Amino acid sequence: MTKELRFTSATGKAKRLPQLDQQQQEAPLVLLQQSGMESEKKTSPNAHDGVIVIGAGAAGLTAAYDLHRKNIPVQVLEAHPTEFGGRVRKLEGFADFPIDAGGEWIHFHPRILSKIVDDPSFARNDHFEVKPYKFAPFYEFRGGKKWVLKYPRHEENEIVYKFTKGYTWHDFFQNFIAKSLDIQYGCVVQSIDYSTARITVKCRNGRVFFGSQVIVAVSLPILQDDDITFVPQLPPAKKKAIDNVPFGPGLKVFLEFSSQFYHNNFGIQTKKHGERVFYNEMAFQRNPNKRNILAVYVYGDVALKYTHLGDDAIIQRLVEELDGAYKGKASRTYIKGFVQNWTCSEPFIRGAFSSYRKGMKPMWTILQPVDKKIFFAGEHLPPNGADYGYVTGAALSGRNAATAVQCVQKGEKPPFLWKAWMVHVLGTVMFGFEQRLFFNDTD
């Protein structure tokens, strides 16, 4: 099964579809202080103004939600001027129902949603429905000449789940997680000063926030590109680990046609590292109007042939490739398209997800808190060490970070993540055993 983009508002131009507003207007200059922050006498590590969570994606939202439920003051800072979600994004107006323009799949059994909400009584059927799906049979167009029914791999035989009836991952976080949180938008964090007991977080728009702990849940390239200055600097081993995690380019495209001339699941062969997967978006939804919408997901080195192009050019290239595989039927039946370019159109994301194709050691290093003050969360840090790149892995990473913060505030040692440690050990020994993410066809 293909790894999916895990979790923000669509920014690319949609052919015959109005471009969504991406005005990035800074918020007014405000000095925010929470209750109790005015006391400069609070110097004990356990005395806190509250916890600051940086990033309102799946990891950051779930971390803040868990802290809020435990009555711990928490503030969420989101760089986007108007929206939460990160790589969880809802596309409206393209089809008869909303579409997941980012993270789409529910990996593992849907009861994992109860674990994210942290409520055993949570009954999904009271709120939404999910549908199982398998990416087999999977066809591949090879060498520009022939279709091949690929031998089912583990990933393609894996049963995944998807929300139905127009429900999306974004709706899930809106309805169960985000609505109870205080999210400050337009807060592009520039620096985190943790040199004293009170941590100071400064944003580009001049706003200043204080807290006792900080959970950094931003997209990995933000840390790799040093967009945030840490005072003091992060330990060299942690910065090296962050820089050593591959983070691939990616995009997602939706194409509507007047007829379904294509297979439900297929790929077009590439010798580049990554994957290019096509699937029938309408297979998951009620379709009374008989619309034909094909989803295209491209990740890794192969995505570089698209990401630098404009939206219209991306659509044109994909339609031409489909023409080659289906004897010109794509261009003859094409109606409209939409591009979600996660690499070049999202300044606070800059790609798809992590891969760890060079080994798992960096994950374990990044997971360790810094000075009991700075904690990290994200799709690249799943608690079980294996579910990186998934919305579910990101969300549970946020819960793990929140648990670690609570332990520190109580003077306790955070729980040992033995699953992540085992993956780290096995990954170090076997080096790169997790390359199951990618298509590596070279024949």
UniProtKB/TrEMBL annotation:
GO terms for molecular function: oxidoreductase activity. It comes from the Eukaryota. Pfam families: Amino_oxidase, NAD_binding_8. Residues 1-20 are annotated as: Disordered. Residues 177-405 form the Amine oxidase domain. PANTHER family: FLAVIN MONOAMINE OXIDASE, LYSINE-SPECIFIC HISTONE DEMETHYLASE 2. This is Specific histone demethylase 1 homolog 1. It comes from Seminavis robusta.
